[in-house]
Amino acid sequence: MPALAVDAAATVAHAFTTCDAAARFPAAPLFAPAAVVAAAAAAADKPDVGAAAWSADLSSALYNVDGWGAPYFFVNDDGDIAVRPHGAATLPGQEIDLAKVVARAAGPSAGGGLGLPLPLLVRFPDVLRHRVESLNAAFDYAVRSTGYGGRYQGVYPVKCNQDRYVVEDIVEFGAPFGFGLEAGSKPELLLTMSCLVARGSPDALLVCNGYKDLEYVSLALIARTMGLNTVIVLEQEEELDIVVEASRRLDIRPVVGMRAKLRTKHAGHFGATSGEKGKFGLNAAQILSVVSKLKALGMLDCLQLLHFHIGSQIPTTALLADGVGEAAQIYCELARMGAAMRVIDVGGGLGIDYDGTHSAQTDMSVAYSLEEYAAAVVAAVGRVCDRKGVQHPVICSESGRALVSHHSVLVFEAFSASAPAANIDSATAYLLDELTDDCRNDYRNLMAAAVRGDFETCALYADQLKRRCAEQFKEGVLGLEHLAAVDGLCEIVARGMGVAERPRTYNINLSVFTSLPDMWAIEQQFPIIPIQRLQERPAIDGILSDLTCDSDGKVDQFIGGRHSLPLHELPSHGTRGYYLGMFLGGAYQEALGGLHNLFGGPSVVRVSQSDGPHCFAVTRAAPGPSCADVLRAMQHEPEVMFEVLKQRITDDGATAAALARAFGAMPYLSFGGSEVSLESSGMSSDSEGSAAGAAEDDDDEWEFMRGLTV
Ligand SMILES: *Cc1c(COP(=O)(O)O)cnc(C)c1O
């Protein structure tokens, strides 16, 4: 082989590896504060800066943790993500290290862990309490500081997260404020009724939204006889007839609200329900018609609440004030016409700053705080009512996203990653020398251009070389080894010329469809970052690819306008233990997620701050749905399937046991000994097709299991 080729390749490869392209990632234009980010990016850009020059603070700035995470999430001195369970009121010893929670939840029981398979949803009820209290405090302050004559009495729309413990917590934490619930369907109404009866304040409102039939309305009326403060909100004019009919049949007088269709329009994705063409609510003519019907029936005193909903993620307080002002005018009109108006319900829309920019530039960000939101609502209602001489109403909001988004973190593992292009060795160089003459010409021209630093010519020849080789491969002239060698060469040359390395693909043990449905369905972005090793420089650009056999099952858009995420090299010894967290996903994601490829939900733990330095308590733990559970959801009968398969088993029982284990395990990848027991699958190798129930979490076993983390 000609020495020239080998030398050139070797020289090029050597020259370019010092230019550690993997250390480079683009600065994020949207990240704030800009100066710190620039510093972080600059440090990351320096090819020769070692891990020692990096710090937890630089990671915090790089991922903008303070922007979207404050006051709950931060990077601690160990380089782990930690949680301040009581927000800014958290004392230094009360912080909870998320990596330690994961170690405790997923670790083997022999080491004191709970042996829960990942993915893992970690709920923090303390954060939920802090959200409920902050929302009420914000409105309380706005009311007191402006001399507003009414009070705030919110409801939680359970649509955002119907998990039993989430709803129970909110009702319990909200009871001192008379905080209530909102339902939008019959099962939601059933759960809100029972939860409010069991632990709600007697003052709490139960707002009934959504499309209604006679059954729904009857249930809402029956709730009134149980002492619940139910308001039936008319979303359609026809619903009035149903309410009148049910009320007559049951002889229960209703309290009625009306959902107004506002002209104020919220232009973002979440504003599709607003404006004149919106899906819900009554327009001016319909409102007048309902009023005159109620009057004719002698029921105008039943009309007590006005509701509207501009849409989720209201971007600015200017838009909010505009909508609330319009609604307050309608409220005053209804009072003028003789309705016994008492409550103005401003709906949902209190937004979350997913990208932490406080910019309102995209649907992912809102430009106000809780306090500013409350102040804008109270001021707008007060102003209109004062002008019209109408008594200040009780202000209700249906803030869902704002209450539950922060309370949970989804933790999942990146278990492998695509490898970077290797350097060219002499064997590869030898392969390049075997190319046909025309290919070798391209190759020489490519190298010459590379040495000259002529990037454009380089790219041209690289492209031509690749195309020519592909053609010759199809003709059978070249082998797979030649193709691979040429691809590798072109990649190294591109890297050397300063072309940003293509992001590597990190495979994650998760289903985007099940756990991050909005990411797939509406391209919503949530902050995703490694939860450990943040004192090390994340030197690799990665995108995330999930377990489903679906090309949409990936994450390649990240907050801050990034198309890749700075990540660390996976542990070289084996591939375990690199965990990522998805944050601010406590609203909507759980109930929206499906069973694509039959991947079910994650394991769940509830973690509370507990006394003692750096102590936390795992107060509840449950593995996610097993293979048997997800099969059942599709009408398969795991017990019968097991019996059918058992017919073909020839050995003494080891195979049956393995089969039963497969039914009992979660659908996700399991690396090294899942600890979910056979019993939890509802079948064991000797069960004779017993129709035992789904995996029942044995709560007591986990109750108050303390995790000392020092
Ligand atoms: C979805 C919804 C809410 C909750 O909205 P958020 O933006 O999550 O606060 C409130 N009210 C109604 C009528 C809704 O449809």
TrEMBL record:
Requisite cofactors: pyridoxal 5'-phosphate; Mg(2+)
A GO molecular-function descriptor: arginine decarboxylase activity
Modified residues (N6-(pyridoxal phosphate)lysine): K159
Pathway assigned to this chain's UniProt record: Amine and polyamine biosynthesis; agmatine biosynthesis; agmatine from L-arginine: step 1/1
Family of this protein: Belongs to the Orn/Lys/Arg decarboxylase class-II family. SpeA subfamily.
EC number in record: 4.1.1.19
Superkingdom of origin organism: Eukaryota
Active site, renumbered: C549
Biological processes, Gene Ontology terms: L-arginine catabolic process; putrescine biosynthetic process; response to cold; spermidine biosynthetic process
Protein name: Arginine decarboxylase
Keyword vocabulary terms for this entry: Decarboxylase, Lyase, Magnesium, Pyridoxal phosphate, Spermidine biosynthesis
Cross-referenced PANTHER family: ARGININE DECARBOXYLASE, ARGININE DECARBOXYLASE 1, CHLOROPLASTIC-RELATED
Reaction(s) catalysed (UniProt annotation): L-arginine + H(+) = agmatine + CO2
EC class: lyase
Span list, region Disordered: 679-701
Domain Orn/DAP/Arg decarboxylase 2 N-terminal residues, every copy: 151-405
Biased composition (Low complexity): 679-694
Pfam families from the UniProt entry: Orn_Arg_deC_N
